[in-house]
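A reminder from the course coordinator: this example appears on the midterm review sheet, so study it carefully.

Given structure:
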C-alpha cells in the first residue's frame, strides 16, 4: 500500500515538471554589442540581448567616475539605449557596464576629437573647434583652441589658444619620471618629478605662457616652509627655481617652455628639538619615530602629540616606518591626485588598507582606533586571535574590527585606557599613532 502511494506521488511530480517552462531553469544572461569610437557631442548607442526584464546601464569615464546611468527595458530579449556624449567630455577610454547584480556585461569604447577637413583641429559634432580637457595624461590638442591636460590632478598643464605652434593637432603628454635627477643639496622633494612633452618633444617653446599646477605632499612641508616649483635645466644639469602660487596642497606657475618639473622645499639643517613633548607619556616613542624619518614635528618646534591624525597621514607614516617600496595599488576616486595617493596605493598593494567602498577611501577623515588596529595587524601580518583583552566597551567594537582589536591587544600593540575601555570609535591622536607603530617595529 505504501509503495503504491509513493509511486503515485512520484508520477504526479513528473507530470507537474513537464508543465514547467524550460525557461524557468535557464540561466539569466546579458550581452553587450561593440561600441564604435566616438567624439564629444556625438550620440552613443548601447544595445544587446538579455533574459532579464530590464538592465541598468552605467557609463564610466577614464578617471573611474560615472558619466551616465539609466535603466533600459528589454523587448523580445533585446535592449537598446542612446545618450549624448557631453561636448566637453574628456578624451580617453570609457567603460560601459550593463546588467543587474552579478549578471553583467562590460565593454570599452574610445572618445577622441576628430580632425576637421581643413585645418586638422579638434572639433565637436557640429565642426566647431573646442578646447580639450583630459585627466588621463595624454590628449590631442588643437593649437587654435588649446586645452587642459593632467595626470589625474598630480600634474596639470593648461595651454591657452595660440600657445602651440602650427595649425595641426599635437599630442600633449604628462608623465611621472621613474628615475628623476637627484634633488639639489639642501632641498627636499615634496612631489613627484613630472615631464611634459609635445608630439614626443621633451623640450618645447610655446608662443605664449602656459600654466602648470603640481600637487605636493603637505605632510612633508612645515608651517613656515614655502614650497616652490623648480625646472630641470638639461644643459647645465641643474634644478632651477621658478617659485609659484601655493593653494593648500597645490602650487601653480606660468612657464614658456617644457622640461622636467618638481616641487621642493628647503631641508632643515639638523634635527628639530620638539618643545611640547617633555613629560608626555609618548615622548620616547615620538623621538624614536621622528629620528627614523617616518614623521616630523612642526617648524615652530612643536609636535602636537594630542592632535588627531587622518587616515591618509597614518597610512603615510606606516609606509615610511616600514620602509615599503613604492608600488602601484588601488587608486580610489578620492585618492587620485591626493598628496598621499602614492602612499595609500603602496599600503593597498601590501594589503594594509581598504576603502569604505571600492571607490571611496576617505583620506582626510580622522582615523579611528579600531581602523588603526585593523591597519596595524595587517601591516604586522600577525596571526589573528580571538578574545584578546576583555574591554568594558567591547560591544561597541565593530564586527569587522573585533579580531584585529583582539589580536592587537593580545600582542600589546594597542592597549586600552585606565578605565578598561578601548573607545573603538574615537579618533586616534598623533601620539597614539606613533606609539602603535613603534610597538609594531619592535
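Designed residues:
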Amino acid at each position: 500500500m505504501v509503495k503504491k502511494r509513493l509511486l503515485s506521488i512520484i508520477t504526479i511530480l513528473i507530470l507537474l515538471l513537464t508543465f514547467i517552462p524550460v525557461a524557468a531553469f535557464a540561466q539569466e544572461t546579458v550581452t553587450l554589442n561593440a561600441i564604435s569610437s566616438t567624439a564629444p557631442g556625438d550620440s552613443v548607442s548601447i544595445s544587446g540581448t538579455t533574459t532579464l526584464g530590464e538592465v541598468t546601464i552605467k557609463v564610466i569615464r577614464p578617471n573611474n567616475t560615472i558619466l551616465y546611468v539609466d535603466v533600459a527595458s528589454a523587448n523580445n530579449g533585446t535592449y537598446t539605449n542612446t545618450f549624448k556624449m557631453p561636448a566637453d567630455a574628456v578624451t580617453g577610454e570609457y567603460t560601459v557596464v550593463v546588467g543587474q547584480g552579478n549578471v553583467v556585461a562590460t565593454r570599452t569604447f574610445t572618445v577622441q576629437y576628430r580632425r576637421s577637413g581643413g585645418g586638422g583641429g579638434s572639433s565637436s559634432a557640429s565642426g566647431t573647434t573646442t578646447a580639450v580637457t583630459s585627466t588621463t595624461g595624454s590628449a590631442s590638442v588643437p593649437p587654435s583652441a588649446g586645452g587642459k591636460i593632467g595626470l589625474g590632478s598630480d600634474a596639470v598643464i593648461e595651454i591657452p589658444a595660440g600657445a602651440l605652434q602650427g595649425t595641426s593637432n599635437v599630442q600633449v603628454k604628462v608623465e611621472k619620471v621613474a628615475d628623476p635627477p637627484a634633488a639639489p643639496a639642501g632641498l627636499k622633494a615634496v612631489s613627484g618629478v613630472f615631464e611634459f612633452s609635445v608630439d614626443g618633444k621633451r623640450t618645447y617653446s610655446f608662443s605664449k605662457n602656459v600654466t602648470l599646477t603640481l600637487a605636493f605632499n603637505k605632510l612633508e612641508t612645515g608651517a613656515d616652509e614655502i614650497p616652490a616649483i623648480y625646472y630641470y635645466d638639461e644643459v647645465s644639469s641643474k634644478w632651477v627655481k621658478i617659485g609659484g602660487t601655493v593653494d593648500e596642497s597645490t602650487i601653480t606657475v606660468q612657464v614658456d617652455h617644457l622640461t622636467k618639473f618638481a616641487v621642493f622645499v628647503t631641508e632643515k639643517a639638523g634635527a628639530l628639538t620638539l618643545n611640547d613633548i617633555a613629560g608626555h607619556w609618548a615622548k620616547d616613542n615620538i623621538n624614536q619615530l621622528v629620528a627614523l624619518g617616518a614623521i616630523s614635528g612642526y617648524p615652530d618646534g612643536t609636535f602636537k602629540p594630542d592632535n588627531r591624525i587622518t587616515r591618509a597621514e597614518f597610512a603615510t607614516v606606516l609606509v615610511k616606518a616600514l620602509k615599503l617600496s613604492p608600488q602601484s595599488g588601488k587608486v580610489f576616486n578620492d585618492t587620485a591626485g591626493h598628496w598621499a595617493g602614492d602612499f595609500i596605493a603602496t599600503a593597498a598593494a601590501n594589503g594594509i588598507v581598504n576603502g569604505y567602498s571600492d571607490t571611496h577611501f576617505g583620506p582626510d577623515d580622522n582615523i579611528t582606533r579600531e581602523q588603526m588596529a585593523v591597519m596595524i595587524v595587517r601591516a604586522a601580518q600577525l596571526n589573528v586571535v580571538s578574545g584578546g583583552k576583555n574591554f568594558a566597551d567591547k560591544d561597541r567594537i565593530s564586527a569587522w574590527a573585533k579580531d584585529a582589536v583582539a589580536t592587537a591587544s593580545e600582542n600589546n600593540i594597542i592597549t586600552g585606557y585606565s578605565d578598561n575601555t578601548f573607545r573603538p570609535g574615537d579618533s586616534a591622536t598623533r601620539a597614539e599613532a606613533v606609539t602603535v607603530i613603534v610597538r609594531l617595529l619592535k
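The longest helix spans residues 2-18. Helices lie at 2-18, 283-292, 311-321, 341-349, 369-380, 402-410, 430-441.
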